Amino acid sequence: QVQLVESGGGLVQPGGSLTLSCTAYGLNFHDYRMSWYRRSLGNEREWVASISTVGGRTDYVDSVKDRFTISRNNAKNTVYLQMTSLNPEDTAVYYCKAVQYRRPVYWGEGAQVTVAS
User: Fold this and answer.
1) DSSP 89-106
2) How many CB atoms lie within 10 A of CB 77?
3) What digits encode the pLDDT tens for the residues 77-95?
């Protein structure tokens, strides 16, 4: 059974930092392109960042460029999202997503990130 488990969410003050982790179980992690999405209250789920299978390519939505860093450790079946200079607009539930060509798409359950003073 495939499972994606996010961790590392919480409450942080504006300007602070937080790192999310997403560990995958039950799939060949190194074959999957990994992404982070987020959904804030009342909004659609938004793509945040993606990383290729071996980490050679990363992409970000403009609003998080130069503040967030996506990375992966294939030996640990884990993808990370390092978030810095957080502001209240980053408050959301963050989800990881695993995609491989011609395979089902998998989502995690989500991790709440709240930026507030």
Assistant:
1) GG-EEEEEEEE-TTS--E
2) 18
3) 999 999 999 999 999 999 9
